[in-house]
Amino acid sequence: MLTLNTIKENPEEVIRRLAIKNFDATQVIARVLELDKTRRNTQASLDSSLAELKTLSATIGQLMKEGKKEEAEAIKAKTGEIKEANKYLEAAMKAAETEITDILLTVPNMPCNAVPPGKGAEDNVVERMGGIVPELPEDALPHWELAKKYNLIDFELGVKITGAGFPVYRGKGARLQRALINFFLEKARNAGYEEIQPPYVVNAASGYGTGQLPDKEGQMYHCNEDDLYLIPTAEVPVTNIYRDTILNEADLPIKNTAYSACFRREAGSYGKDVRGLNRLHQFDKVEIVRIDTPEHSYQSLDEMIAHVESLVQALELPYRILRLCGGDMSFTSAITFDFEVFSAAQKRWLEVSSVSNFESYQANRLKCRYKSGDKKPQLAHTLNGSALALPRIVAALLENNQTPEGIRIPKALVPYTGFDIID
């Protein structure tokens, strides 16, 4: 969440930048400043009262030594009244602090100055494009038909076992999944990321730490009895490794990668745009996460973008990189770059990765800090990116590589699949 100091230093700038996300912060910022004034005034009154109590306690001790018991008892009675009043001051201060925190949890992160204004996806900026869009015949099949033809993915069986959005991968379809996971993990390890195998369920504190709660509570699967949440991405457990932690600056940037299944309710997802693998409730993804200093985090962001770009290039997929406008960004992000690959049979772009810098927004919620020498600890910056999400990658690979002989496997992936064609 935003720090109180950030808001106090320049509230007009906070309001201006949040407006780029189409969030009107005028009233909430005014309320936060009002509550902070109440908190500070109450704190001053409490400090003054505690100082008075200290003085009176010393006076009582002196009077008792001098045998002036009645005067001492009178002052004792006064200290009792002050202590009772202090309880109300402490309660008022606590209430103000709690309300400030509750409000700040509902305020999104400020976009950085490089974020373009805009309402939605149509206002995103294309940074660059790469790869060659294949020319397929008119009778080219979409991936859901290819999956059925070659017995790779059984969507109907998934409905029988669980429900829509939970496909069953079979034979070479399952091997292709495993190959992609291993390929992405090996590339991340070679790029210096430590591999993590995280839990697939997290507690509420972890959800609040990375910003899924309370903003995206309705999109997460919740285990009511245990009050645990199925993870929407490995970002959540991996980033929470560093919750309530003070890191050494010399150890930054920290670079982690993790494979996980991901679970998203995706309420209200219907229609042709979610057919087949286009949108699932359970899917596989390899994530990369960095913890860095504010001075270096944007270099880290560039390196993460380059890493994801190298993956789609290795898979020989046509792609484009988008710089998201304010209206299409996530609640927690300061800047986001989306990767999309072109699905030749569907004739549409499919998002396969988001790479984001959250600056200190998540770190403030996580209390993730770093220090150098004897300097005071300060908030780190957190970043993450999909490297990569599998479903739409698989969709594009199947569609773009279909031939009369079968589905060709990209050369870089063959050592991982053990076959070069699906026939």
From TrEMBL:
SUPFAM superfamilies xref list: Class II aaRS and biotin synthetases, tRNA-binding arm
Residues the entry annotates as binding ATP: R264, R265, E266, E351, V352, S353, S354
Predominant location category: cytoplasm
A GO BP entry: seryl-tRNA aminoacylation
Pathway as given in its UniProt record: Aminoacyl-tRNA biosynthesis; selenocysteinyl-tRNA(Sec) biosynthesis; L-seryl-tRNA(Sec) from L-serine and tRNA(Sec): step 1/1
Domain Aminoacyl-transfer RNA synthetases class-II family profile span(s) in chain numbering: 175-415
Organism (species): Candidatus Gallibacteroides avistercoris
GO molecular function, one term: ATP binding
Name of protein: Serine--tRNA ligase
Key words of the record: Aminoacyl-tRNA synthetase, ATP-binding, Cytoplasm, Ligase, Nucleotide-binding, Protein biosynthesis
Keyword DNA damage found: no
Subcellular localization, as worded in the UniProt entry: Cytoplasm
Classification via PROSITE patterns: AA_TRNA_LIGASE_II
